[in-house]
Amino acid sequence: MRIVTTRARLYRTLRSAYLERAHVLPEATILYRVKRYDFHESLVEGLTVVQAGPVRAAWLLARSKVTTLEINEPLMLSSVWGSALAIRGLQARSLLGGPRATIVSYAMENSNPLVRPVGEEGRLRRFANSRLSRFVWRHTDRIAFGTDAARITYDVALRRPSAGITSTVIPALPAPCACPLDPGPGEPRVVFLGALVARKGFPDLLAAWPSVTALIPTARLTIIGKGALEDRARQAAEQDPSIELIIDPPRSEIHGYLRRASVLTLPSQPTATWREQIGLPIVEGLAHGCNIVTTSETGLANWLTEHGHDVVAPGAGVPALATAVVHALQKRVGSGAAAVADLPKVDGRLAADAWMFVGAR
Q: How much is the pTM?
């Protein structure tokens, strides 16, 4: 197989949101290693998508006509080996008389992975990843930061870009979704969307929910996703009639649930090796006019606070989360149209893509 497009995107993981975005972007070949939990095969139709490990991807790129390649961000350590091999493959092509490729990236990391605690066995791996990360950084031509927090993280972790790197900050805010807003929720409804795991704050939400319904008896909670805590979610839905559980529904149904919701909550909690960068559910909730309840872990925390959403500190406790959800329900019921008025007309990720690929053929 050969890559016939002049644009390509090299991703470690592929998820439905990337495929949806690809349908409205100029044609590009998508190379990926693994599928995310929320991958929907139907979205591949009409796209050029190739599953390839790091070595095969580098080989395909070296034999291609690609002139602009998007890679995962340099501080995504799980992908730096693949990115470095791809860059080397394109450099080898150039040495053999082929065209020089422009390397671009979109960055959201807001926690320096190069200083996270590791055990003895992890130190050598981190040293190698650190060197590769800096290599990828030096050979990136254009980088768009999705938040100012990401820009600051890169300034600290990898120092300011060299003279050869062009950078900008384009907030990772969505445009209002094209699907019509419902006239208003018939009841105060909260949506949790995403992986059913502890780091997304799912156990905290379940613990806080009885306090929410004690103050707002008509409140309803819709849990959408799948993950390690599915059994716990199923038990909660069976015991509490105000909770419904939807396991991995089609994308069209997710849009419907978000249209009918007044609040989306994603109370992410940091771990020793992870911090929420943006939170795709937050972006999708904003696009549908939801008020957001989250923690200050997301890189959008400052924007959310400035625009009237509810942001609590991680580890603030279940009572603080319950209070924030109640506040959000009382504040924004039926005001979806007003909420989307705060959003840009052009989706921030699409704007970043246009900036990264400017001048690409």
A: 0.91
